[in-house]
Amino acid sequence: MWAIEAVDLSKTYKGTNTPALDRISVQIEKGQIFTLLGRNGAGKTTFVRISATQLLPSSGTLSIFGYDVKSNAKNVRELISVVPQEGRPLRVLTPWDHVYNWLKIRGKRRHEAKLITENILRRLELFEVKDKPAMNLSGGMKQKILVAMALAVDVELLFLDEPTIGLDPVSRRQVWSLIQELKKEGKTILLTTHYMDEAEILSDKILIIDNGRTIKEGTMKDLRKVISQNIRVDISRNSLELESLKSYGRVVETGTNSLRLFTFESHLKEIYNLAIKKNISISISPITLDDIFISLVQNKNK
Ligand SMILES: Nc1ncnc2c1ncn2[C@@H]1O[C@H](COP(=O)(O)OP(=O)(O)OP(=O)(O)O)[C@@H](O)[C@H]1O
Ligand SMILES: [Mg+2]
């Protein structure tokens, strides 16, 4: 049985003409970290909200462990936990109140709820501020309260809609490690993010959507095939002639002072020698999900 199965799922919001989701079909395996990627307005949150029974689809179906979100919302809700996009903690409640009360609501007994609350607050470095009202905390700390609440409850499926937005690099990694532990316990995670490094590190599978439609689905290995070359070289603009670079691979715009060349290892020696001869610095790295994403959403109409 699939953790999530969408069949021809569509959603058009009232008062709009263009669908936010347009016949999305996807099957998500239990125990996987599945990531939805897409530009602003692509339809990611719409998909998450339908899956989490917060919004009804216009047509098509979506089921969570076999339960239809429309007709079996109650069963679905018992199996899931959500970090909503742009959620806000309650101003006067503390991090402790938020997590502890939430665990009590979700059926934990007092003693266990206390242990879990302390553990998660420590893991996210919120323990020091556990008794401060949320309104006196920083933006990132408020976001971490929402993450702590969602990750604390013991459920089969977690919806994390941009969970690490606004978090510092250390805090982001703390969240990543919690997510990876949940996966080890067999939980399924549906993640959305605009951080391509996060998606690359965490995801078992990625679905890229644009204008509510599927653009590409697969593992990182599958997605790497989108760009035939495997190396990228960044070169400061005007230091080498564009035409000469083109013979080594594909030159892409970066919108910065440098040009990016997608190329193969076999050309590196030559490019390197050229750079030394012309006395310019170049930087060489593997092609990342960032490159693949940009290439896919820019080429979608071609
Ligand atoms: N409540 C709403 N009423 C009308 N249109 C909406 C509503 N919520 C979202 N939309 C529209 O649906 C489309 C998809 O929005 P959605 O929030 O799902 O995008 P997203 O991929 O989550 O974007 P982001 O990365 O910015 O969070 C957008 O065109 C948006 O304007
Ligand atoms: Mg969103």
Give a short summary of the structure:
By secondary structure, the protein is of the alpha/beta class.
Number of domains as seen in the coordinates: 2
Give the low-pLDDT segments. Answer: none
**CATH class designation of the largest domain:** Alpha Beta
Radius of gyration: 22 Å
Quantity of strands, as a count: 14
Mean pLDDT: 94
Number of helices: 11
Mass-distribution shape: globular
Specify the CATH homologous superfamily of the largest domain.
P-loop containing nucleotide triphosphate hydrolases
- Approximate strand percentage: 25-35%
Sheet/helix structural class:
alpha/beta
**Hetero ligands:** adenosine-5'-triphosphate, magnesium ion
Do you know the CATH topology of the largest domain?
Answer: Rossmann fold
Largest sheet descriptor? 6 strands, mixed
Q: What is the correct CATH architecture of the largest domain?
A: 3-Layer(aba) Sandwich
Alpha-carbon distance between the two ends: 36 Å
Order of helices and strands: EEEHEEHEHHHEHEHEEHEHEEHEH
Portion of residues in helices?
25-40%
Strand order of the largest sheet: 6-7-8-3-9-10
Explain what the structure shows:
This protein is of the alpha/beta class and 302 residues long. It folds into two domains: 4-224, Rossmann fold (3-Layer(aba) Sandwich), CATH 3.40.50; 231-286, Alpha-Beta Plaits (2-Layer Sandwich). The chain has eleven helices and 14 strands. The strands form three sheets. The chain has a six-stranded mixed β-sheet, with helices on both faces. A four-stranded antiparallel β-sheet has the order 2-1-4-5, with helices on one face. The radius of gyration is 22 Å and the shape is globular. The model has no long low-confidence stretch (mean pLDDT 94). The structure holds adenosine-5'-triphosphate and magnesium ion.
